[in-house]
Q: What sequence folds into this?
């Protein structure tokens, strides 16, 4: 048995790494937009503006950089599904970590976010390039 990864795995691993890099950049975009708006607007409005900006940035970067597909109106309309998957999974993970395993909520929030990355990646991949394309 060879120690080399199959070509499809190496390709998906690269995409997952790019997806993670886009996620980190997306977090920075959210923060950079949120902070100045927070001084001018109620925090929830600042958050909504920041999350909208960050989601659009994430969409564009994941289309171009992660999955190599052109942005389209259909993909843009479906893309928020990946955010819903992330919210649902990270929230469930945080809840289990805090309530069942007594993990500090500050740590659980980070771990829950990391735990959601693989499924969020798969949902994003499906929305942007479909099931059949690898």
A:
């Amino acid at each position: 048995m060879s120690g080399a990864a199959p070509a499809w795995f190496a390709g998906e691993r690269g995409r997952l790494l790019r997806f993670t890099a886009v996620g980190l950049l997306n977090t920075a975009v959210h923060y950079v937009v949120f902070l100045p708006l927070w001084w001018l607007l109620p925090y929830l409005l600042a958050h909504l503006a920041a999350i909208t900006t960050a989601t659009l940035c994430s969409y564009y970067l994941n289309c171009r950089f992660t999955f190599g597909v052109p942005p389209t109106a259909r993909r843009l309309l479906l893309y928020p599904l990946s955010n819903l998957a992330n919210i649902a999974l990270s929230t469930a993970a945080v809840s289990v970590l805090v309530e069942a395993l007594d993990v500090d909520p500050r740590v659980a929030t980070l771990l829950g976010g990391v735990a959601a990355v693989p499924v969020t990646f798969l949902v994003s991949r499906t929305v942007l390039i479909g099931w059949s394309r690898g």
About this structure: The mean pLDDT is 86.
